[in-house]
Amino acid sequence: MEIIDSKPTSNFLKGFAIVTVLINHFLNLHISIDLQGFSNLFVGIFFFQGGQATSFPLSRNCSMSFDLKRTFVFYFQRCLRIFPLLWIAWAFEYFIRNGDLTPWILTGFHTTGHYWFISALFQCYFIAPILFFFLTKNFSRTILIIATIFFLFIIFWMMDFFPALLLSGFDFIHAKWRGIYFLHILFFVFGLSTPFFSSKMESITIPLTNFGISFCFWSGISFIIGFMAIAKIYGSTSSFFNLMFLIGPVPLLALLCVFSFQCLPTNRVFSFFGRISYSLYLFHVSYFLFFRSFDLFHNYPYFETLALLIFLPVFILFCIIFEKFGSIIYRKFQFYFFPSSF
Q: Residue 265: its pLDDT value, please?
């Protein structure tokens, strides 16, 4: 097993994903065309990258033996990364919405709106240590078992085998992505598995220049978006095309992620946004809603768009500050509770 240091590529992919989320949510608020579901696909990059990044701490703590104390340390570290900024983002949005926001979000367990991603990510982190342990013991068998359980679950779900109460519980914790239960966990496992098959792919060399890598990446993105656009157009009248819109691009995105971590594309602009992607994701809805709350902009929507663009650098600056604050909190608590890890 080989753990690859691909942080620049991770930041690039996260930057691209968060930019698509910002653009998609902005357009959803300001134009009447149905664009739901486009950026939701690229959120999958966060699941894949999260799995790939999680392999670093787990390779140190939970690979050779399953240790409850080390597992607790892993969970504690994930909570330190997620909760401080989540609570601040909730407070901002609670104020902007005049209290119309559920406090369940503070738990990270049951969330609403764009915070669904937090619940889904926690589900991935919850099972990550035990999955990684079994992957190190027998990679092929573990992948086969996971895939079999997943597809059997989907088959039984489509046959209405499970009781409604159980599915309601899954819906309560937002266990769906792209309309499929636990698909995000499968995507996370795919990212978590990258260290195991990366060594097997060392013999596969792709003789591409930086321009060639960028061309292949953006061609892949264009193909995925085009595929989704066609499926979206015909999806309103055809259940098949609707299914293709939801599920069809997922394996394409998975292949693009594998290609990216193999060829390591980078871009300074997207990498910058990738470094603050968590803060951008948490606070961007509050930023949009803040300007929407002014009565003046209801009559002059173009002024609202102009104001959003003018104050965008200020918003980005605040996200940089929040990201640094989150890192300070993480290091302080990490040093206080686990000084041996420094």
A: 83
Please tell me the total number of residues recorded for the chain in this structure: 342
What are the φ and ψ backbone dihedral angles of 163, each rounded to 5 degrees? -65, 150
Please name which of 101, 2, 38 lies closest in space to residue 245, comparing C-alpha atoms. Answer: 38
Residue 285's identity, in one-letter code, is V
Tell me the sheet residues that pair with 177. Answer: 180
Q: What is the DSSP string of 279-324?
A: HHHHHHHHHHHHHHT-HHHHH-HHHHHHHHHHTHHHHHHHHHHHHH
**The one-letter amino acid at 133:** F
Tokens of 12: 């690039």
Helix boundaries (H) for the chain: 7-30, 38-42, 44-61, 68-96, 116-137, 139-158, 164-172, 183-192, 194-198, 210-235, 239-247, 249-263, 268-275, 277-292, 295-299, 301-310, 312-337
For the chain, the straight-line distance linking the first and the last C-alpha, in angstroms and rounded, comes to: 24
Contact (CB, 8 A) for 111 and 282: no
Q: Cβ of 303: how many Cβ atoms within 10 Å? A: 13
Copy the structure tokens of residue 328: 């300070």
For the chain, give the mean pLDDT. Answer: 87
| pTM score, whole prediction | 0.91
Confidence of residue 341 (pLDDT cuts 50, 70, 90): low
Cα gap 135→21, rounded to integer Å: 32
